[in-house]
Every structure is written in C-alpha cells, then in structure tokens.
C-alpha cells in the first residue's frame, strides 16, 4: 500500500512522462532552429567580412583602417554567437535523442506500479 506522499510522487511522475511525449518534439524543433540560426548567422557574417576585402583599394595586401577593424570586431562577435547557437543546438538535440523514450528508471517504475495494481 502506498502512502499519500508516494501516490503524489507517482502521479507527478506519470504527468511528467505524459508531458515529455510532446515536449520532446518542441525541444527537437528548438534544437534544429538553433542549428539553422547559427549557420545562417555565421554565413551572413562571413559574407560581410568577405565584402570588406572587396572593391577598389581593398584587399589583404592593404593595411586595414580603423573602421575595417571595427566592422570585423562586430562580425567576430556574431560568429562567436553563431558558434554558441550551434553548440547549444547540438547539445539539446543530443539530450533529446538520448532520452527520447523518457528516463529509463521512470519508465521501469511506472511499469512496475502498473503491473502491481493489475494483480
């Protein structure tokens, strides 16, 4: 026989397992969004940096002006942010995929309780 606290914890566990079924899709979509956003931000920043070196009087053989360095510093921050987005997306996707069916201990406990209540 379960105590009131144990029943409350079991109901909470069942509710968390039920919510995980739809939340995993939300988390997977968020991780894909982070990956795509990070790639887009990095590509646009790289194109902008490449644009700084094109045109008359521009190139790697010419000394950079202060304004060129200012723009490059802004884009370096964007590239760093893009890398963080991609790392976060990969990490979140790994967590979601790893625990796609839920926590194994929770699943085992819920199955054991279901079997004991059926008998």
Structure, briefly:
This protein is 82% helix and 0% strand.
Shape: rod-shaped
Q: Kindly name the structural category.
A: mainly alpha
Residue-averaged pLDDT: 85
Number of helical stretches of at least 4 residues: 3
User: What composes the largest sheet?
Assistant: none
Q: Based on the structure, what is the oligomeric state of the protein chains?
A: single chain
Low-confidence stretches: none
Q: Tell me roughly what share of residues is in helical segments.
A: over 70%
Give the SSE string.
Answer: HHH
What percentage of the residues does DSSP assign to strands (E)? Answer: under 5%
N→C terminal distance? 13 Å
Radius of gyration: 25 Å
- The total beta strand count reads 0
Folded structure, characterized:
With 119 residues, the protein is an all-alpha fold. The chain is 82% helix and 0% strand. Helix 1 runs antiparallel to helix 2 (66-98). The mean pLDDT is 85.
